[in-house]
Design a protein that fits this description.
By secondary structure, the protein is α/β, with parallel strands linked by helices. The chain has a single domain, classed as 3-Layer(aba) Sandwich (Rossmann fold). 33% of the residues lie in helices and 24% in strands. The protein starts with 12 loop residues before the first strand and ends in a 7-residue tail after the last helix.
């Protein structure tokens, strides 16, 4: 559960950030950053199916208040996530054109899109 404030007894906001990364293992590739009022749970997944399962678990078992998906998620992927957590806000990060092309060039250079 989210961290509770020592003065009010009310837990802070707990958000999750889901990143689609080749060869990711959500059990291993995960981190949490906590402040007194906010906790960010970052989880790397390799595909949409893993993301759906992870998001459902984060909402049901870890009581996250929102989910933010990285730009790799398509509109269809976003719909699949929303379908399993319909009462939880789902946000999607999107890049502008120049940023997207710069990211793509770097990802291509390091072999991001190569099949393992």
């Amino acid at each position: 559960m989210s961290q509770e404030s020592k003065t009010s007894g009310v837990r802070g906001f707990k958000g999750s950030w889901i990143l689609m990364v080749p060869e990711a293992d959500p059990q291993k590739h995960r981190a949490s950053i906590k402040t007194p009022k906010y906790e960010a749970v970052v989880v790397c997944v390799k595909d949409c199916d893993q993301a759906v399962a992870v998001c459902k678990s984060l909402v049901e078992k870890e009581a996250v208040d929102s989910v933010t998906l990285c730009p790799a998620f398509t509109n269809f992927d976003v719909a699949k996530v929303i379908a399993v957590i319909p009462k939880t806000p789902v946000n999607v990060c999107r890049s502008d054109g120049p940023s997207m092309f710069a990211e793509y060039a770097t990802m291509k250079k390091i072999g991001w899109f190569e099949k393992p």
